[in-house]
From TrEMBL:
Organism for this UniProt entry: Agromyces humatus
Coiled coil, from the record: none
Listed PANTHER family: STEROL 3-BETA-GLUCOSYLTRANSFERASE (PTHR48050), STEROL 3-BETA-GLUCOSYLTRANSFERASE UGT80A2 (PTHR48050:SF13)
Domain of life: Bacteria
Lineage: Bacteria, Bacillati, Actinomycetota, Actinomycetes, Micrococcales
Protein name per the record: Glycosyltransferase
Length: 431
């Protein structure tokens, strides 16, 4: 059997998709990954075959910086980072305006290239990142079935009256004006209309009998695989969901680093801090997190990413500070995590039984943070407004999480350990 994995050229997307494919690899099956050149080393690290496929103008091998991107993408990133400083709604408005170029880049060419790879590889199963719209457009136009992997919060695939890009739920720390939210929704509706028109136009170009749609963002494969814990799902959305499985998380195996193993052994209780590939550029927020941890005497394992550690003040010598850290490994021993609320961070923390302090900046991070807040598995703060004192209080609270919330979080982690996400994906696609 051959399984084809289709991913944008971003480490944060490829890592969970590749981890799902290890279920096939463990059974001796052939795995081919179609992605761009920036993630080629990651593909090789998994021991998979690779086929070159560009699905966007940008890329990210692990940590991203605007100056490392093509000019247009670099300008877009700088605009995005500046928007995050103005607040949640300005950030979502900026992202909505960028939607065509960041989600459906050169769609006809990308769709045809996807179909060429399918013809050449002749896979028995296909796993596709849900946000790889151009690739899915090609598969849909040719009637090729695939497992549609939603790597973000489930609202990344809108249902009912939801509009892509306009969060249906917000954490309590965010209090946008009703007028602002209404304007954001109207903008997202206009973007949806334009995006859908392009989807339908290219679909008809690819195949005369292409089935057009009223909302391309709501389109999906025959089976949707949510990389998300079932226990965090909003019960009101469940009846509206397409045929699906919840995978929990994709806790990948990471290479052993003796220096990190030694640090963990001697660290005692520690918190893990990461703002992911993109948002680690917000060194001002990281600095407040650092100051909060210092005020509590809490040791940190800190992934500084795009921020120079020199910008974070005097760091205690017994902290673990690197540009990039093995997140899954550290979460297996961490007492708490401070994060921007990206889906990998949230699902991997919950799957490891680690409570969270979430500082959401963009996209589906607000809905994901609201779900964690609702579950009692963490605390949510506004990254632009939270003081050092508020951060310290929140970090202390999650590091001492107990009672019913602690029991439920441990139970979620135990269930995922018994039935890991890759096995659930394998069973779902095999069926």
């Amino acid at each position: 059997m051959t399984i084809l994995v289709i991913s944008p050229d971003y480490a944060s997307h490829l890592l969970p998709l590749a981890t799902l494919a290890t279920a096939w690899q463990a059974r001796g099956e052939r795995v081919v990954v179609a992605s761009g050149p920036a993630t080629a080393e990651l593909v090789a690290g998994f021991g998979f075959e690779r086929s070159d496929l560009r699905l966007g103008r940008g890329s990210n091998p692990g940590v991203i910086a605007a100056e490392d991107q093509p000019r247009d993408e670099g300008d877009s990133l700088r605009g995005f980072f500046e928007a995050t400083r103005r607040g949640a709604v300005p950030t979502l408005e900026f992202q909505a305006a960028e939607r065509l170029v960041d989600l459906m880049w050169d769609p006809a060419v990308s769709a045809r290239n996807t179909l060429r790879i399918v013809e050449r590889v002749s896979p028995d199963r296909i796993l596709v990142d849900h946000l790889a719209f151009s690739a899915r457009l090609g598969l849909d136009s040719d009637g090729i079935p695939y497992g549609d992997v939603v790597l973000g919060h489930p609202t990344t695939l809108p249902v009912g009256d939801e509009v892509y890009g306009s969060p249906p739920v917000w954490p309590s720390a965010f209090r946008a004006e009703p007028r602002e939210l209404a304007e954001l929704r109207r903008l997202c509706e206009r973007v949806t209309s334009g995006f859908t028109a392009e989807w339908n136009r290219v679909g008809r170009e690819l195949h005369a009998g292409f089935r057009t749609t009223r909302d391309a963002f709501a389109e999906h494969g025959a089976l949707v695989l949510y990389n998300y814990p079932d226990e965090l799902v909003d019960h009101e959305r469940r009846p509206l969901l397409p045929p699906h499985r919840f995978l929990g998380s994709t806790l990948r195996a990471e290479p052993v680093d003796p220096a990190i193993e030694a640090w963990i052994l001697g660290a005692g209780r520690f918190a893990y801090v990461s703002f992911g590939s993109f948002l680690s550029v917000r060194g001002d927020v990281l600095r407040r997190v650092v100051d909060a941890a210092k005020s509590l005497g809490v040791r940190l394992a800190l992934a500084s990413g795009a921020t120079d550690p020199a910008q974070l003040g005097d760091l205690p010598p017994d902290w673990l500070v690197r540009r990039y850290l093995p997140q899954v490994r550290l979460l297996s021993d961490a007492t708490a995590v401070v994060t921007h609320g990206g889906n990998n961070s949230v699902t991997e923390a919950v799957g490891s039984g680690v409570p969270l302090v979430i500082l959401p900046f963009s996209t589906d991070q607000f809905a994901g943070a609201a779900a964690v807040e609702r579950s009692g598995f963490g605390v949510v703060l506004d990254p632009n407004a939270a003081s050092v004192h508020e951060l310290a209080v929140s970090l202390a609270a999650v590091m001492t999480l107990d009672g019913e919330a602690r029991t439920r979080l441990d139970a979620v982690a135990a269930r995922q350990a018994a039935r890991p996400g890759p096995e659930l994906a394998f069973d779902a696609l095999s069926a």
